Protein: Glutamate synthase [NADPH] small chain
Organism: Streptomyces atratus
Amino acid sequence: MADPKGFLTTGREVAETRPVGERVKDWNEVYVPGSLLPIISKQAGRCMDCGIPFCHNGCPLGNLIPEWNDYAYREDWSAASERLHATNNFPEFTGRLCPAPCESACVLGINQAAVTIKNVEVSIIDKAWGNGDVTPQPPERLSGKTVAVIGSGPAGLAAAQQLTRAGHTVAVYERADRIGGLLRYGIPEFKMEKSHINRRIEQMRAEGTKFRTETEIGRDIDAAKLRRRYDAVVIAAGATVSRDLPVPGRELNGVHFAMEYLPLANKVQEGDLTVAPITAEGKHVVVIGGGDTGADCVGTAHRQGALSVTQLEIMPRPGEDRNAGQPWPTFPMLYKVTSAHEEGGERLYSVSTTHFEGDENGDVQSLHLAEVEFKDGKLEQKPGTERSIPAQLVTLAMGFTGTDQANGLVQQFGLELDERGNVARDADFATNVDGVFVAGDAGRGQSLIVWAIAEGRSAARGVDRYLTGASALPAPIRPTDRALTV
């Protein structure tokens, strides 16, 4: 273990963020560079000799958290990196983007502030990159088998890296112009700078993984032809169909899905555009949806110079502490203030949009809403609470409903779907089509990055077994596993 008395002598400290007035003027990550290293060893020392590390249950990857906490406490960064990579292909992604269900399950969190597991994780991997400990791991021999991976988000990349290291020849197909999926174009630069993706891609290229961008399976290449070309296929296309809001005025100019808005801001940072075609500059912005994607829209609008930003959530405001219905070690629904919320704007809870109102040019000008409450288990509008707020840009960030079926991929493969519209799979992540597997949100539905990576790793084992008859690759989860919630 780390410091036997660390949890008694050291309080919780987290990464220091740059001043709001400074960071909203650029797109760099919000944290002060290097601020964690002076404190992180002591923070890792707060990890207890708890006997049963429930953080393992909170994390679907099965991260060996007490082990790399111990190494970080002793400042043995190479050993810490080895233990971290033993279960996680991309800790620099999860260390920045994961909501840390491991911390919710931390034993110390029963009656104290949990160990800063996420901060320790990102410190270890950043130190590993700086020390040159992250190197390509090409296979010792090739199997002669070929695999196509459709989609280059965290699930697809994890599956591809595992299968490449197992000796198979892997090609990743991505419909966008760059590799990364939602990591590339759904996550703003201020949450994760894209240099972290780029260097992982270079590592994977050096290991032998091939990448094919601007190629959409179903439109550019027939899915059935792709299957005949490869010995196996992994579908990791995500759940990219955005949930819509069918209310009057939805057709007005200025009402967009979040995934129409956010990628354009990222393309400006990539140098593809000088100005985003959809921008919040000089506008009253309303973000519908209280989750992480909504917060990404809020932070983006601040940096683009919005006049005001209002975020709407139909559910009641969560509490700041666990309630009896969400006991430890489950992942509780708590009131969360992200870095984007620290930067300003208003958050409204228990409200529902009734309609949008536009001007003579068809541009949205206001949003009409009403308060809602639960009655007999259903949300109903409260009479007399209707009002309007200014809105020249509205982003819909209400989640996703399933994988894209409009491009023909599902039909061309002949895939069966489950009752929720996800691609159905068996215990080995195999679909009803021989040699075709599915990983990530396409099979699970909208989920977290740690679940996507875990799915990619587990599906890779299923593919490896299919191709060779056996596999030594790890499978941290089953398709039926779900988060530790109530």
Q: What stands out?
A: The chain has three domains: 5-131, 146-240+401-468, 244-398.
